[in-house]
């Protein structure tokens, strides 16, 4: 029994040493992966939230029926064009959301590889070509960071476009409501006794 123990001891030490050589790389990838996952998920949620909030804001901007009947045909046309401008600006969110969603689906699938590395490290047994897997995951993290930089630029352009279109619609709505308020009869000042 002692002979078997002494025979297996070096193998056990060598196998543990084999896993330990990968520890720094696996831990670095796992930490970067977790940070990038959070950043991408937060960004995706922010884009979705903005689209929802802008859609609600647009829905709340309606000229009442009485005011609409008083508008000249060119004012009705301008109103409809401004509404279409907001709708068109909002539609720019859809491709960005699809791009982010597609990437997040792939990202989630690759999370299994990160989890397998973390679990293998914890159990003291890593399978497959660890270096290749770590390199692949590092490349995906770099790609995610590059994508987020591009998405942030697109998002800023889209958000600015929607904000400008909504401001235009709000100003138009205010101008349609202002003449109605200006045509009300002023009240005569009260006489002093």
Structure commentary:
The chain has helices at 2-20, 23-60, 65-70, 73-91, 93-123, 130-182. It is an all-alpha fold. It has a domain at 73-171.
Low-confidence stretches: 4-16, 180-193
The helix content is over 70%
User: Mean pLDDT score, rounded?
Assistant: 86
Beta-strand level of the residues, as a percent range?
under 5%
**Through-space gap between termini:** 119 Å
Q: Which sheet architecture does the biggest sheet show? A: none
Report the total helices.
6
The tally of strands reads: 0
Q: Whole-number radius of gyration?
A: 31 Å
> What's the order of the H and E elements?
HHHHHH
Overall geometric form? rod-shaped
Task: Give the class from helix and strand content and strand pairing.
Answer: mainly alpha
């Amino acid at each position: 029994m002692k002979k078997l123990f002494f025979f297996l001891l070096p193998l056990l030490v060598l196998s543990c040493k084999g896993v330990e050589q990968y520890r720094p790389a696996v831990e670095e990838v796992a930490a970067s992966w977790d940070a990038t996952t959070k950043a991408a998920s937060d960004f995706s949620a922010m884009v979705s939230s903005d689209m929802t909030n802008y859609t609600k804001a647009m829905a709340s901007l309606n000229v009442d029926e009485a005011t609409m009947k008083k508008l000249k045909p060119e004012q009705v046309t301008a109103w409809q064009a401004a509404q279409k401008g907001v709708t068109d600006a909002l539609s720019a969110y859809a491709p960005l959301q699809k791009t982010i969603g597609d990437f997040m689906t792939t990202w989630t699938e690759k999370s299994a590889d990160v989890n397998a590395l973390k679990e293998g490290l914890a159990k003291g047994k890593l399978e497959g070509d660890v270096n290749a897997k770590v390199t692949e995951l590092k490349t995906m993290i770099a790609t995610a960071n590059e994508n987020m930089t591009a998405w942030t630029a697109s998002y800023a352009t889209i958000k600015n476009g929607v904000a400008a279109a909504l401001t235009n619609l709000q100003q138009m709505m205010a101008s349609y409501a202002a003449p109605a308020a200006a045509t009300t009869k002023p009240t005569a000042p009260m006489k002093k006794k």
